[in-house]
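In this supplementary section we document a worked example of the pipeline. Step one takes a protein sequence of length 419 as its only input; no multiple sequence alignment statistics are reported here. Step two produces a three-dimensional model, which step three serialises into structure tokens for compact storage. The input and output of this example are shown verbatim.
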Amino acid sequence: MAKRKTKITAKNNWPVITVSGPPELKEALLTMEEDSIIKVVGPIDIDTLEIVGLHDPSCHSIHAPTYWPYKYYIETPHKVVLDLSEAIIDKNWMFCCINKHLCGIILPDNCDRFGSFKDVVWRVENLETIGVTPRNSTFTSIDGVLYTKNGEILIACPRARKSITIPDSVKAIARYAFLENKALTNISIPENIIEISDDAFRGCTSLTAINVAPENHAFSSQDGVLYNKDLKKLIKCPEGKKEVTIPDSVTEIGDGAFECCTITSINLPQGLMEIGKAAFSDCNFLTDVKISENVTKIGDGAFARCLALRSINIGSAVEEIGRALFFWCKTLRTVTIPSSVKRIETRAFEYCEALTFIDIPEGLTDIMHRAFYHCTSLSSINIPSTIKKIESSAFDGCIALNDITIPASVKYIWVPLLL
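The serialised model returned by step three reads:
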């Protein structure tokens, strides 16, 4: 076997292993010492990876699937920082690292797409730092967090970071910027931020407080919950927060505002008018909800996968049961649908397996595709004389439903062809 051509030097008390290509990288990863920096110098291409067998999943090294865009998976036995600062990387490559020991990555000059390495940021749970070469014209790194070059957009915070100080230059927080960071317990929003993505803090299960600087002109916070400046829109409740009191001033709950939260109950203010998409989705401890009479719109999937939800009372101003509104609410037993509702949308009650009876009021005209799909306990349903359309698979899988009366008002009903 040829002697390994690597240079090991000291850097912050970590051994640095410098390799010039995939063959040396493979050997380095298999023989490296604990807590090392792998510095890649030179080009990395798919042909070379195939020749040296780095696509072999049995190797604790780099794996390259044969589909485009090419990805390689880095698996190492010890804690490692992957330094690509001097590597020559094909811009079409996507780096997918599933190794729990990777704690840092340094991006090269020509890396100009976040999509090229997003899986490293989103999937590596022990990632502590994201570095960028000074010559990179697209990104910059401040204290191990990734920003746009001008420092105005926070793009990604490593999943293992326990704290962060957002610079005053930042004006926006990107979608999934803190995705799946389970170490962060609180965060402070400085005064210059004017935009925060709905999904910025998704999966931050330990986050209990989002605090906004009083000088901020776009946002405010109360008891650790994020609102717009005038407290009329609730934007985000931290997922780790167990109790929330919503101010009477709130008229709108934003998209995904309580998604994945651990709350068990919620009192919605009387002045509330709109509930956004996925607003309470995946709230697995939420048991009962009463929607006020002033709510006119409930977004798609607003209560999807609320596994403990037992009953819900829908206010009399709502005109539509939205798409997948109660999808996979497996313990939902009681739903009160007001006479204002004209349409039950696609998959609205799909997999509501505990639902035994539902009274559909007069005035409803449309029951859409898979609306009650696999409601296995549904034994009785009252279909009003105002119904005009029943779409495909509306009652498929309702094995307890022995008979159903279709009124003469129905103008369209989908019946599968028996071939």
